[in-house]
Amino acid sequence: MDLGRRLRSLMREAAEIIADSKARQALPEEALADLATVHSLLDRVLMLMLARGAVDPREIERAGEDLERILREGVRDR
Q1: Which residues, given as ranges, of the chain have pLDDT below 70?
Q2: In whole angstroms, what separates CA 41 from the centre of its chain?
């Protein structure tokens, strides 16, 4: 289950970079789009692992909560 936590941590990092206004200014638009793609792919990996029973379902729930929190904070940051 450690892998699920590690993937969730990577997702959180990608989302925080995307939501950070200074990072958005510093990175080219293509880089931000690529980060969003990475986040989406990590989410897919977690879902595939969940389907095979290889990850704790709570990690999926926490990943969603992380993303919601980061998006809320990013909106406030603007």
Answers
A1: 1, 74-78
A2: 9
